[in-house]
Write a structure and sequence with these properties.
Blueprint: H1 2-19, H2 36-46, H3 52-63, E1 67-69, H4 79-93, E2 98-105, H5 112-132, E3 140-147, E4 164-172, H6 182-195
Parallel strand pairs: 2-3
Antiparallel strand pairs: 1-4, 2-4
Length: 203
């Protein structure tokens, strides 16, 4: 009797030693979301329960400076502004399904009507530069002047932070189940390339 319990104890100890300290019962640990969350996210986007433009707006703001600044009473792009806009253009060309708006702003110096026109000139200058960098004309659906109405810093004096344009994502083209054009074909090709994985080569 004692020998039987001794043998069972030895067997149990041996199995525990083989399993090791990190071994768990299959299915014991929950998926941390590394696979499940992206799959659910894609499903929500495809079914329209998450707005793609909102998702990409957050990504745009995180990856690219959305704002450029101007000298007083000027719509001329300086070197820093051109650098930022080149970054914007590079990002925008990667996502031809997205549509953008450019908003022009001014400080409070001068009349409201003059600043309205100045804000428009600034937005138009940014649009023109982005198109020179290869951004398709149809990707920018509007340039809008907000003049002096939305300052970052509220002051009646000269304020460089308020003399700016802001580029924002306005929306995205909808996929059509049966119609495809050249622009949408570019989107499909990009997604196809991105989904490819390197093939292992024989050594």
């Amino acid at each position: 009797m004692n020998r039987r319990f001794f043998m069972l104890g030895v067997a149990g100890t041996t199995l525990a030693a083989c399993a090791g300290p990190n071994a768990n019962e299959a299915g014991l640990a929950l998926d941390e979301g590394g696979f499940g969350n992206p799959t659910m996210h894609n499903t929500l986007v495809q079914t329209g329960r998450i707005n793609l433009a909102e998702i990409m707006s957050r990504r745009f703001e995180a990856e690219v400076p959305a704002m450029v600044n101007f000298a007083f009473d000027s719509a001329t792009l300086d070197a820093e502004a051109r650098h930022i806009l080149r970054l914007q253009a590079h990002w925008m060309k990667q996502f031809p399904e997205l549509r953008f708006r450019i908003f022009g702003h001014t400080d409070a110096v001068g009349s409201a009507s003059y600043n309205q026109r100045l804000g428009q000139r600034r937005a138009d200058a940014v649009r023109h530069f982005l198109m020179q960098q290869g951004v398709p004309r149809g990707s920018i659906i509007a340039t809008v002047s907000r003049g002096q109405s939305q300052p970052l810093i509220v002051t009646q004096g000269r304020e460089p932070a308020n003399r700016r344009t802001v580029t924002e994502i306005a929306g995205a083209i909808r996929r059509h189940p049966t119609i495809i054009n050249g622009e949408y074909a570019r989107v499909l090709h990009r997604e196809y390339i991105a989904s490819a994985t390197p093939r292992a080569t024989d050594s």
